[in-house]
Design brief:
Order of helices and strands: HHHHHHHHHHHHHHHHHHHH
Number of strands: 0
Strand content: under 5%
CATH architecture of the largest domain: Up-down Bundle
Length: 474
Amino acid sequence: MVTTATEAPGLRTGPDALVRSLVFMGMSLAVISSLGAPLVPQIAGAYHVPLAQAQWSLTITLLAGTVATPVLGRLGDGPHRRTATVVAVAASAVGCALAALPLGFGLLLVGRALQGAGIGVIPLAITTARDSLSPERGRRTVAILSITTAAGVGLGYPLTGLIAQGLGLRAAFWFGAVISTVSFVIGLWVLPRSGHLRRRPLDLPGACLLSSGLAGLMLVLSEGGTWGWASPALSGLLALSVVLLATWAVRELRCAHPLIDLRVAQHRSVMVANLVMVVMGAAMYLLMSLVTRLAQTPADTGYGFGASVAVTGLALLPFSAASVVASRAERRLSNRLSPRTVLALSCLVCLASLVFFTLAHSALWQLFVAMGTAGLGIGCAFAVVPQVIVRAVPATETGSAISFNQVLRCVGYTVGSALSATVLQSHTAAGQLLPTAGGYSAAGVFGVLSAAAAVLVALALRPRPRPAAVTEVG
């Protein structure tokens, strides 16, 4: 017999209310995580710090999210799932309020770090949907939740840009505080109780090793251009990070209750899904970084558009809208095609968007077209990948497996951001602040190569027999 949402233990509301609440929480926290990117120039001016230092308002959120997500994911597989979710949302709300107060740049960074906890909410929401909804409704909800990161960024850039431009920098963070507080209240009321789930020990040594290694790796990727890619400090940090991650991997394979079960992660479908997310995440953030920077480049350079923060954000709105449309189309495609084919086609569409941008970025409308096309590919890929993972792992490992995938997305985002900055810097003449026009084409080529690699990786996914259709009950 199929278990319906109304039969799920601890569920206080109907399935529709739960789905709407999970999507709202995921979307609002994705918007909050994107607050740093469009506001970096304003943060630099408001706090009188260099642009490179202000960039930490974005970097520290990704770092904190990378550290928090694996721990939250493991907690999501046990009786503390509901508590972990509302605490992560509360931390994001406190972080927004702290960033909004005029307390100095240091406490702004503390607030942005707290907001990083919200990145780990998506795996918790996906696990909740899998356990609390009927199989068919759960599959649809997982697909929607998985694209909230992409859709939220595309929506968050123009929204926060408009607020900051019209009402000031702090108003954007107060907006984040309000919507995260609403999410917290919704979570307290709607999220089902999870005390019935089996308790599992939390691998704290493994969490420390993974968090330290990932944090070091993220620092290397994000600060390489500032420190110098050949600097001894960067090389030492990279070596230390590799040693920590290797030590963690060995421990996880021997641990009775690992933070992330690497034996499950070695499943071919899970491995392919994770690799696709790293490469696609890099391609996505590289394109977004190039578009936002090119749009704001002064027109007197001969190739920039001199757009405001608000207009630059609007250039990303097609990305958000297209990703939502694509997530709905994914369900129909998956009913007719194998996950391997759907994933490869999604990566191919993303590849087309990067080829288009590389060859044509001399008019503002071309940026809109490139972002809209990328949204179709990213939205469909982000919707199908969690489905592949959920089908491949045991129910008790869903939160851990999805959270690890989310961590790898963040790594991909950082790689893409760092790659765009490095290529553009290499095309910036000594003593100049802005790169040449050719720098954007050169960076676009790296994006094309990343998307092409994603297509090849997706084709390595083994076709699986289509499961029998499940009739939703209730």
